[in-house]
Structure formats: structure tokens, C-alpha cells
Amino acid sequence: MDALFFTLTTLSLPSSPEAGASIMASASTSATPLPPIPHDIASIAGPQIISIMLNWFLYGILVIQTYIYYQCFPDDHLRIKVLVYGVFTLDTIQSVCATADSFHWFGKGYGNLHMLADPYIAPFDAPILDGMIAFTVQTFFCWRIRVLQKSWWLPSFVFVFALASLAGAIASGIGGFQVHNLMRIGTLKWQLCLWLVGSAVTDTLIAVSMTYLLLRSRTHDYDQTNNILVRIVRLTIETNTLTASVAITVLVCLLAIPNNASIAAAP
User: Fold this and answer.
1) Out of 36, 91, 108, 248, which residue is the most buried by the measure of CB atoms under 10 Å away?
2) Which of 87, 96, 37, 48 is closest to 66 using CA atoms?
3) Which pTM value belongs to this model?
4) Average pLDDT of 162-178?
């Protein structure tokens, strides 16, 4: 990895003294001087870098999961396949957009604090796309609760919170484009609270409801079936607890560190 970094760095340097002099001359004649880099630049740029790296790490896991689904469940209903591959497509678009954000901030805008604070397309790929993906998955869980409970009242209750979270995500994305500065994302308090609180409540309700309904479905006659149900319950609790915890953590960071909202606003 060090050799690769050195190679990329070397390729990015001017190929001749004349080219270097030209770059220096154009920089010195710039109409708008760049602001000095502050001493706490790591707390400003670090969250974006770490979040985009984690984004691709999790996307790699999603690719493996999608491939396993393709190999193991070829006979699933068409609607389930459309759901799985649709979510995978949205996640792919989100990861590509996050990479475009990264290039805008740290490639094209290297050393430019104005471009580092520019949201670029982050309000689209972070709140809006993330909200759409979460809403799709949460709606699927509402359907599963409906099938298990054979009633509409509980899944409808969960769906209302999922819909509120989606509305908050869209409002946060629109507001992110309007503020024109990542450092001012913290001013969108009601939008972000609606998105993140709605998401956390929805995931918690799904975890509790699915756990109760699946455990209620256990029988004492089929140990293999019971083992499968226990594994599904464990997976449901782990997944929804993790997503709810992330939403709560992001909200706490936004409210506790309003002057550096990029810690939570990075995609």
C-alpha cells in the first residue's frame, strides 16, 4: 500500500520544472486567496475520510451478501428479487456518489477549505439516498410483521414512523443543498431529528415486534425449526439494534457538537 501511495503521489507531481512553474504562477495570480489551514483540520476532514472508507467497507459486505442471495435463492418470488437487487442498486449509486464527494473535497479541492465545506452532492447521497434505502427495507419488515401477526395495526404503526423518517431524510437533503456549507448542517435541527429519531424508533419497533412474533411462533415439536427461528431473531435484533444505535449516535453528535457538524454529516 505504501508503494502504491508513493506511485500515485509521484504521478501527480509536475512532470517538468516548466510545468511546476506554470502551476505556481497560476496559483499566485488567483483572484481569491485560499484561507489558511487551521490547526484542527483533522477534526474537519477526518470524519469525511473515515466515513467514506467505512462506506466502501460495508458496501463490500453488501456485495458478498447479494452474491450469496443470488447463488442460494434462485427460486425466490420476483418481487423479493426486485427488492434485493433494487436496494443493491441504490447502495451502489450511493457509494459512487460518496466517492465523487471524496474526490471533490480531497482531490479537486485539495488544500481548499471552501471546497472542503462545500456539500457538493453529499445531501443527496447521505440523507436522501440513505433515507430511501432505509425506508425500502423498513417497509419490507412491515410486510413481514403483517404476515406473522395477520393484522394491519402494528405494521401500520411502524410504517408511520418509517414514513416520517423518510420525510425527515428528504427535508435534510434539501436543507443541506440550501445551507451551502457542511459546517452549518447543525442548523437543520428539526429535519435531522425527524430523520434520525424516526429511523431509530422504527428500527427499535421492528426489532421488538419481530422478536416477539418469531418467538411466539416456536413449537416444542420441531427443534430444527426452533433453531432457525432463534437465528432469525438473533440476526433481526443485531441488525436493527446496530442501525438504531448509529442513528442515535449521529443525532447526539449533531446536537452535542453543533460547531463541527461534519463529524456526523459525512456520508
Assistant:
1) 91
2) 87
3) 0.79
4) 94
